[in-house]
């Protein structure tokens, strides 16, 4: 079904709404064979630069002709067969091919040629993977605890919930016209652990474990988002639902429907869900969701059940299954190459049960390794590259894509982040991990507001020249009582960062000079 509320006039609509009204982004799905034949240079500009994103194919103006393919990996869980296929896909592109683990527990493949897309989509389908609706005005990858079903202390195993919500939103990966024309992007997270591993507070809908009258269910938060114009933590919908899969699905459906039909579409900078909540007030928004559901929502439980600091899952941890362990590997800034992907697939197959998991910190977890196999596993050469014991400033480093591939970027991020992390680890002793997040522009894909130290790319004037710089964020708190950090200093040239960050690390994080 195509969206029911097509506006009668397009005069007040922004350019995105106009081109969506002309042709739904998902319709591009039926033209992929044709595009593959004619080549990207001959394509209509809107189809090339925007509509392809509805099937996860991103034209990169920085590397024309070499596309990015954004998948959907619900709850960040994939199989060795899937990882092997993805490794083979990027391997074909030699030095251009790689993959990045994203801050939404997802994978983005690089170097992809448009002429290969029909074949790639057939190969994805054969291993039950999809990239549909992973970009533009769609529901993005749905996140859940990366140790769901493994964690000895987990409250709710979110795997099936996340998968079912994705299936409803995407019509089991085939595409769902009900949700391809939202006013803007939309993020959903379903937390099941005690440590808020998914950054619930920065999602448009977040389900957070909460006991009500002794029964475990979810409190619901809404409206969290980051944008260049405004960043807001999610606020309580003042609703609690029990653990039924149907309840979670119907609430997502109802909220998405209200947002789709009433979300603001005139100014794209004011189109995220929180702007509608601002305009209506949370009580009216809640009432509209109830009307959509055709039943009242229960009031929220007084407190949620998040009572732990956030874990990074790097290292060896016993699972709830006796004799089994999960091992978290540190993947510097989430960058994988074809051979890494094939190696990870092999390790998961040989030592585990074939499962591979991704975290929002851009790392990998291999679960189901028996205690007797641990020693052999830890001796594998890949663990030299992807350590289980990285240094404190590299351990929690997160970085968005940055200038290497992203047209919005004001600075190069990933290589710089790794280089600076290493340099600071060499200069300083740290008593604890410090979470440093880099993001190449104010869009905040690298989430600097959740970090201990966040670095947001900008341009700076230095010695009469324009150079790459950052705005400095501090105070992001994750896990229990999460709250967002704020900008504390603007316009630092990147070349001046070592002394400035050293001082901050010494004064605020207990670092001592080596
Ligand atoms: Fe993002 C746009 C990369 C997570 C806020 N983001 C983009 C684009 C698609 C821009 C583009 O077309 O070049 C970037 C693609 C660059 C590339 O080649 O990789 C991009 N965003 C990413 C990723 C890959 C960063 C990463 O290195 O991990 C993350 C992919 C997630 C995924 O798997 O789906 C990513 N982006 C985020 C997050 C973090 C999150 O979801 O927790 C945010 C802030 C949270 C939020 O959205 O509320 C985020 N991205 C944005 C925005 C600002 C949205 C807004 O409302 O204004 C844009 C710009 C836009 O949409 O117009 C953007
Ligand atoms: Fe690109 Fe900016 Fe997002 Fe980084 S934060 S990936 S530079 S849009």
Automatic annotation (TrEMBL):
Transmembrane residue ranges: none
Organism in which the protein naturally occurs: Aphanothece sacrum FPU1
Nitrite/Sulfite reductase ferredoxin-like domain span: 65-127, 318-380
InterPro entries: Cbl_synth_CobG-like (IPR012798), NIR_SIR_4Fe-4S (IPR051329), NiRdtase/SiRdtase_haem-b_fer (IPR005117), Nit/Sulf_reduc_fer-like_dom_sf (IPR036136), NO2/SO3_Rdtase_4Fe4S_dom (IPR006067), NO2/SO3_Rdtase_4Fe4S_sf (IPR045854), NO2/SO3_Rdtase_FeS/sirohaem_BS (IPR006066)
A Pfam entry, by short name: NIR_SIR
PANTHER family xrefs: FERREDOXIN--NITRITE REDUCTASE, CHLOROPLASTIC (PTHR32439)
Keywords: 4Fe-4S, Heme, Iron, Iron-sulfur, Metal-binding, Oxidoreductase
Top-level taxon: Bacteria
PROSITE patterns: NIR_SIR
GO molecular function: 4 iron, 4 sulfur cluster binding; heme binding; metal ion binding; oxidoreductase activity
The name this protein goes by in its record: Ferredoxin-nitrite reductase
Domain Nitrite/sulphite reductase 4Fe-4S, first and last residues per copy: 136-296, 395-505
Record-stated family: Belongs to the nitrite and sulfite reductase 4Fe-4S domain family.
């Amino acid at each position: 079904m195509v969206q029911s509320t097509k506006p009668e006039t397009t005069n007040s609509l922004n350019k995105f709404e106009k081109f969506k009204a002309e042709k739904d982004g998902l319709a591009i799905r039926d033209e992929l064979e044709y595009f593959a034949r004619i080549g990207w240079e001959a394509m209509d500009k809107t189809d090339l630069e925007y509509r392809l994103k509805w099937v996860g194919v991103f034209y990169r103006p920085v590397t024309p002709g070499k596309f990015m393919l954004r998948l959907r990996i619900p709850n960040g869980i994939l199989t060795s067969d899937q990882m092997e296929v993805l490794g083979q896909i990027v391997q074909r592109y030699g030095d251009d091919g790689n993959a990045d683990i994203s801050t939404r527990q997802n994978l983005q493949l690089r170097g992809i040629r448009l002429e290969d897309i029909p074949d790639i989509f057939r190969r994805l389908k054969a291993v039950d993977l999809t990239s549909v609706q992973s970009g533009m005005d769609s529901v993005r990858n749905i996140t859940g605890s990366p140790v769901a079903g493994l964690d000895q202390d987990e409250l709710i195993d979110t795997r099936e919930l996340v998968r079912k919500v994705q299936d409803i939103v995407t019509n089991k990966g085939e595409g769902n016209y009900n949700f391809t024309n939202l006013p803007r992007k939309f993020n959903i997270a379903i937390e099941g652990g005690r440590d808020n591993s998914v950054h619930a507070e920065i999602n448009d809908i977040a389900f957070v474990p909460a006991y009500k009258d002794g029964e475990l269910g979810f409190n619901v938060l809404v409206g969290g988002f980051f944008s260049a114009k405004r960043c807001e933590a999610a606020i309580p919908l003042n609703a609690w639902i029990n653990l039924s899969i149907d309840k979670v699905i119907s609430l997502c459906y109802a909220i998405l429907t209200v947002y789709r039909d009433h979300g603001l579409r005139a100014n794209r900078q004011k189109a995220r869900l929180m702007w509608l909540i601002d305009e209506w007030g949370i009580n009216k928004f809640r009432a509209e969701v109830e009307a959509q559901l055709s039943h009242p929502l229960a009031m929220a439980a007084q407190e949620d059940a998040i009572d732990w600091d956030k874990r990074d899952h790097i290292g060896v941890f016993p699972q709830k299954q006796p004799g089994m362990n999960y091992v978290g590997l540190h993947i510097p800034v989430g960058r994988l190459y074809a051979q890494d992907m094939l190696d990870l697939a092999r390790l998961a197959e040989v030592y585990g049960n074939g499962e591979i998991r991704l975290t929002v910190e851009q790392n990998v977890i291999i679960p189901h390794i028996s205690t007797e196999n641990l020693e052999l596993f830890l001796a594998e050469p890949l663990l030299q590259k992807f350590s289980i014991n990285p240094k404190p400033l590299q351990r929690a480093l997160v970085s968005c894509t940055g200038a290497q591939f992203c047209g919005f970027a004001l600075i190069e991020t990933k290589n710089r982040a790794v280089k600076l992390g290493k340099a600071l680890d060499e200069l300083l002793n740290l008593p604890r991990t410090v979470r440093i997040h880099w993001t190449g522009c104010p869009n905040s894909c690298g989430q600097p507001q959740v970090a201990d130290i966040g670095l947001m790319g900008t341009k700076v004037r230095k010695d009469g020249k324009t150079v790459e710089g950052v705005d400095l964020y501090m105070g992001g708190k994750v896990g229990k009582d999460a709250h967002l950090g704020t900008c504390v200093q603007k316009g630092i040239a990147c070349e001046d960062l070592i002394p400035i960050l050293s001082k901050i690390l010494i004064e605020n994080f207990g670092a001592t000079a080596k």
